[in-house]
Structures are given as structure tokens and as C-alpha cells.
Amino acid sequence: IACIFKGYFYGIQKNYPHVLSNTVEQLIRLILILTVIPKLIEISYVHAAVGLILTFLFTEAASIIVFSICMNKKTMYKLSYSKSDIKDILNLSIPTVTSRIIGNICYFFEPIILTNILLYKGYSHYFILTEYGAYNAYAISTLTIPSFFISAVLYVFSIECGTLIIPFI
Question: Quick one: which H or E segment has residue 129?
């Protein structure tokens, strides 16, 4: 649902709702992870995992709420589609959706395959857990966090220049 809202606002060339929802989503995620997850880890790792999943659920819901607040209700009901519009939308969306599905399948199988290969090569469970955990927790987060700041900077730059820049990040 949030991706539909993002696509809608990109289509009408409004970048502010995307940046605002992304900022709210990240802030709520950080607050919940810093406050709730440590308490759940003290209870058990299962509770912490469920808490983390619920954190992502709450942040996505917050993003959808921000998008729905920014949505112009009058414009939303005036939308009409023809068969050529639907064909154009599907021509754009099918490759994007397919690539994301394939990417998510790869993200699912990556830790399974990697840990089994490392076990086959003779590494201990403890080594795999600490090294792969550090890789997922620190390296990937460090590499992907700049996209959050880039989208915010592009929005500020587009306001000051009077043009709309749509980041494809």
C-alpha cells in the first residue's frame, strides 16, 4: 500500500509526502528498536524477533498514515483509467515487481546457502553467527543508510531550486 502511495505521489510530482513518510518511518523504527527490543531480548530471543517484526509492521503503518494524510481526497476520486493506461502501468510495474520478487527470494536463500557452505567448509556455528550477524547488522546498514539522507537532501534541493527531483533510490 505504501508503494502505491509512493507511485501516486511520484506520478503527480510531489516528493514531500515520500520524504515525510520516510522520515517518520525511520524515526519510529529507531525509537522502537532502541527502547522496546532490548527489553524483549531480556525476556527471550523469540520475543525480540516477534518484536522486531511488529516494529516493521508499525513503521509501515505509520508510513501509510502519513501518506493518507497527505493525500488530496478530491483528486483521488477523479481518477479514471482507460485500457491503454492500464497497459502502460502494467508495462512499467511488471518488471519492477518481478525484480523485487526475485530479489526477495535471493535475500531469503542467501543466509541459508551461505551458512551451509560455511558449515561445509568447517567453520563453527559460533563463528558463522558472529561474523554473519556483524555483516548483516553493521555493514549492510552502514551501506544503505545514505539513501535515506540522499532522498531528504534531494527534496530540500528541489524546493530551493524550484524544480522537482524524483530520486530513484
Answer: helix 125-134
| Rounded Cα–Cα distance for residues 153 and 13 (Å) | 16
Give the integer Cα–Cα distance in Å for 104 and 106: 5
DSSP codes of every residue in 4-62:
HHHHHHHHTT--HHHHHHHHHHHHHHHHHHHHHHHHHHHH-HHHHHHHHHHHHHHHHHH
Q: Could you list the mean pLDDT of each consecutive 10-residue stretch along the chain, which spans 169 residues?
A: 77 78 88 89 88 89 86 62 78 80 86 89 88 77 71 60 47
Pair 67, 9: CB distance under 8 Å: yes
Q: And the C-alpha cell for 68?
A: 493518507
3-state helix, strand, coil in the chain (%, to 5): 85, 0, 15
What's the pTM?
A: 0.50
111: closest CA among 79, 78, 135, 95? 135
